[in-house]
Amino acid sequence: MDSQYQLYIGGKWVDSKNRFEVRNPANGQVLASVPDADVSQMAQAIESAVQVERYWAQRPAQERSRILMDASRLMRERKEELAKILTSEEGKPLTEARGEILYAASFLDWFAEEGKRIYGDTIPANSPDKRILVFKQPVGVCLAITPWNFPSAMITRKLGPALAAGCPVIVKPSELTPLSALEIAKIFEEAGLPQGVLSIIVGRDAAGLTEVAMEDPRVRKISFTGSTEVGKHLMQQAASTVKRVSLELGGHAPFIVFPDADLDQAVKQAVVAKMRGMGETCVAANRFYVHEKIMESFAEKMASHFRSMKVGNGLEAEVQVGPLVNKETLEKVERHVEDAVNNGAIVVTGGRRAEIPGGYFYEPTVLTHTDDSMILSREETFGPVAPLFSFCSEREVIEKANQTPSGLAAYFFTRDVGRVFRLSEQLDYGILGANDGLPSTAQAPFGGMKESGLGREGSKYGLEEYLEIKYISLGGIQGKSD
C-alpha cells in the first residue's frame, strides 16, 4: 500500500488541505496518511459527475459491462495485495479478507451481465390508435456511503449496479477504512472508466460532506449501509429533494435451533454466523435461541469451537479472530457482557479482553442463562459474543425472535420441512438462512424489513434500485394505409 494516498475526484488524484492517519486496530501502527476532504471537494465531485452523467448513460451496455469485468479481473489478480490492505486497516483475518475480495469482485461480475438485460415492455393500450411503450433509464448521479466492516464488498455491491445502469457514483467510505476504497479507484481507473464517473471522497467530517450531496438536487439517489440512527437522519435529509433512497441498516439476528436439527451442523454454522468478521457484521447472529432439550449439548459444543479459535493480528498465520475495529466497539462489547453477568448470565467461555497488547481484542464468548432483561437481548452487540436463550415451543420462539424493530437476517435449523415454510413466512426478516449460516451471495437480494432498511442489493432486484421507469403513449397509429 502507499504511505501517502490522494483523493480520487472526477478521474484525477488530488490532495486536500488536511490529512489524517489510518491505523491498524491490531497494534495501533500507522498504515498510511490520507487526505481529509472538505465540503468544496464533495461539491467538486458532484460537479464532475453531473458533467459526465448524460455521456455515461448513453454508453452501450456492452461497454459498461466490459469495464466492470475488467475491474473484477484486476481485483482477482490483486487479491493478495488487496486482502492484506483490508486486514491491516479493518482487522479481520487474512483468510476472511481474501474471501471478501472475491465476494466484492462477484458483484462486478454479476452486474456486468445484468446491465446487458435492462429490458422494457409493450403494454396493450386503451385505444386502437395508441401504443404504450415502457423503457428504463439510469436514475442519475448517486452517492454511496459505505461502512468499515466490509470496506471492499460494500462498495462494489453499490458500485456494480450503479455503473451497470449508467449512473455516475460518488463513494464516501468510512474514515476508519479508506484505503480499500482508494485501491478500488485505482482499479477502475486502470479498467478504463471514463473520468468523472467515479469519485472517492475520504473525510472525517461525514455529516458535513454528506450534507452537501443531500442538499444538491442533481444528486438523485443515495445508497447507505450503516447504523439505523444515521439511516433515519439521511431519510429526512433526502426528503428535501425527494431523492431515491436505499438503506441497509442495523440487524439483531436470531439463530434458532430446534431439537430435530443436525446438532453438529447447527453448531458449525452458528460459529460461522457469529464469528465472521469478529461478529462485526449486520447479519451476525446475535440471539441464539436453543431448544431446552439440547441446550446443554449445544452450549458445550459451541464453547469448544470458540476455545479452539486463535485470536491475534489478522495477518498472522492461523489467526481466526482478529481485533475489533476500535476502542469504542471493544468497550461496548464489555458493557454488554458485564450487564449480562450482573443479571445472572453464566460465562461458559471467554467473557474478557484477550491478553494481546496493543490492539482491541476480545475473547470469543458463550453465555448461558440469558434472558430478555439483558441489554444484549435488545441491542446489537457487534462483537464475538454468543448469548444462548432457552425456548420450549415453536410459537414461543417465533414471538421472541420477532420482538425487535430490526428485520435484516434470521437463521433457523430444523429437519422438518413444514417448519421451514412456517418460519419462513412468520419470521419478519428479509434474509432467512434455513440450515444455512452464510446465505449472502451476489445473485440473491440482500436487504431487510422494518427498521433494517429499504431496498435490495445484489440480484436482479439490485439493478432496479438504480433505474427510472418511463412510458410513452404513442398516438396516431391508425392512419390511412397506402
| Alpha carbon gyration radius | 24 Å
Class from secondary-structure proportions: alpha/beta
Question: For the record, what is the CATH homologous superfamily label of the largest domain?
Answer: Aldehyde Dehydrogenase, Chain A, domain 1
- Count of separate structural domains: 2
- Mean pLDDT, rounded to whole units? 97
CATH class of the largest domain: Alpha Beta
Strand line-up across the major sheet: 14-15-16-13-12-18-19
Shape summary: globular
Give the end-to-end Cα distance, rounded to a whole number of Å.
71 Å
Number of helices: 14
Low-confidence spans: none
CATH architecture of the largest domain: 3-Layer(aba) Sandwich
The count of DSSP E runs of length 2 or more, i.e. the number of strands, is 22
In CATH, the topology of the largest domain is named: Aldehyde Dehydrogenase, Chain A, domain 1
Provide the β-strand percentage band: 15-25%
Instruction: Outline the biggest β-sheet.
Output: 7 strands, mixed
